[in-house]
Design a protein that fits this description.
It is a single chain. The chain has four domains: 39 residues, no CATH class; 107 residues, no CATH class; 78 residues, Immunoglobulins (Immunoglobulin-like), CATH 2.60.40; 46 residues, no CATH class. With 308 residues, it is mostly beta strands. The chain starts with a strand and ends in a 7-residue tail after the last helix. The strands form five sheets. Strands 6, 7, 8, 9, 12 and 13 form a six-stranded antiparallel β-sheet that branches. Strands 1-4-3-2 form a four-stranded antiparallel β-sheet, with no helix packed on it. Helix 1 packs antiparallel against helix 3. The protein binds calcium ion (2 copies). One calcium ion binds next to loops.
Length: 308
């Protein structure tokens, strides 16, 4: 900023300090303009959001586009309030967009559709810059818009319409009663259905799952994510259990015998056979159970919170 002294005053040659909101500006004076100083301060811009995720209803043959979007409760962004249609479904022709669907259009099996979701920061005057976007848990693309808004996009391939059945999952988990448990049904690595529930003994129901085989992925903070194979060919119930990181004997607590089991496996004295127990023992997630994993589990039992 440039500051000019009012008539009858001049700036002191030695002691000129400019502060604004506690920030000390660098001041320069030009000898040819004794009544003028220039003050500079460089602000560090902080990024508000790095990752955005949204859940939509994936296209199914014969269904009309669904414009409902849900975001995580703690999301720093919302649907853009100034866009007439902040959610668009666009039919693709190869990798190019061919037309935007109207609300009465119907999806056709095998065709590709891009969903575009336009976002604005939840808090005014904040800046939205997303490095990663996820739609239904699948990595999408970030679309830059003008100003402090932007969008996320993901291309779905429309499913055949098929028989649909409810799938009920009883989930045993530990630690927090309030942390959300995420349940996802995936095919070939693509998330088809996703939902959340809470509680150490929770039940989640997918009301309409298209007949087929899925990988069911259960995850919760401080727990080891677990995959199950599920085939839905009628009304289906499954039970699942996820355990805390470091809970090698899968009893829900991280105790010194868990550290011992990990150590015996790492040293070759007694191999763990259960693949999920091995995943729980590999607390640093490098793909193998080693002495440092056992040490971290042991430190957790001492209350050093090395795991969570
Ligand atoms: Ca245990
Ligand atoms: Ca490891």
């Amino acid at each position: 900023m440039t500051l000019d002294a009012v008539d009858g005053y001049a700036f002191d040659d030695i002691r000129i300090n400019v502060f604004e909101n506690g920030n000390h500006y660098t001041v320069t004076k030009d000898a040819s303009f004794p009544k003028r100083i220039t003050a500079r301060y460089s602000y560090l811009c902080t990024e508000l959001v790095y990752i955005a995720s949204a859940t939509v209803t994936a296209p199914v043959a014969g269904a009309k586009p669904d414009y409902t979007v849900t975001f995580p409760d703690d999301a720093g962004y919302k649907l853009h309030p100034d866009f007439e249609s902040p959610v668009d479904w666009i039919e693709m022709n190869g990798n190019t967009e061919s037309r935007t669907l109207s609300a009465d259009d119907k999806f056709e099996a095998g065709k590709k559709y891009r969903v575009k979701i336009w976002l604005a920061p939840k808090t005014e005057n904040e800046y939205l810059w997303l490095s990663y976007t996820f739609v239904n848990g699948n990595q999408g693309t970030w679309i830059r818009a003008n100003g402090n808004s932007g969008g996320m996009a993901y291309v779905f391939t429309c499913e055949e319409a098929g028989e649909k059945y409810p799938l009920s999952v009883s989930i045993r988990s530990f630690l927090s009663e309030t942390q959300p448990i995420t349940v996802q049904l995936m095919q070939k690595g693509v998330v088809k259905y996703t939902g959340t529930c809470t509680g150490a003994r929770a039940t989640y129901e997918f009301p309409k799952v298209i007949k087929g085989s899925y990988t069911m992925r259960i995850s919760k903070k401080n727990h080891v994510t677990r995959d199950y194979s599920v085939t839905v060919s009628g009304e289906t119930s499954r039970s699942a259990k996820i355990c805390p990181v470091g809970d090698v004997n899968l009893n829900g607590n991280v105790q010194s015998n868990d550290a011992m089991l990990a150590y015996r496996h790492a040293s070759g004295k007694s191999q763990l056979t259960d693949s999920y127990a091995i995943k729980c023992a590999d607390v640093n997630g490098n793909g193998t159970v080693q002495a440092n994993d056992a040490m971290q589990i042991y430190r957790q039992t001492l209350g050093k919170h090395s795991l969570f």
